[in-house]
Design goal:
mainly alpha
Length: 79
């Protein structure tokens, strides 16, 4: 199998694509974890960020907008 140059190139390409896919998966998982951490931080700090009753109404509008526009649920920490 390794005697033919075409087979060797195909094998090299396949192994390279496998490791590239593994690298992209790790990068994706890291981005998802970062996103989840930021989302949870906003939920936990919402009482600080919107401290007064007037701004609390703006919080509801912001959360609704994020839910409808981007599909990001800021009402609950768990997905």
């Amino acid at each position: 199998m390794l005697g033919n140059m075409g087979h060797l190139m195909f094998l090299l390409l396949t192994v390279s694509l496998y490791f590239y896919t593994v690298q992209l998966q790790k990068k994706s998982e890291k981005a998802e974890k970062t996103f989840q951490d930021l989302r949870c931080e906003i939920i936990k700090r919402s009482k600080e960020l919107w401290a007064t009753p007037e701004t609390w109404e703006h919080r509801k509008e912001t959360f609704r907008w994020m839910q409808s526009t981007y599909g990001i649920n800021l009402y609950h920490e768990n997905k």
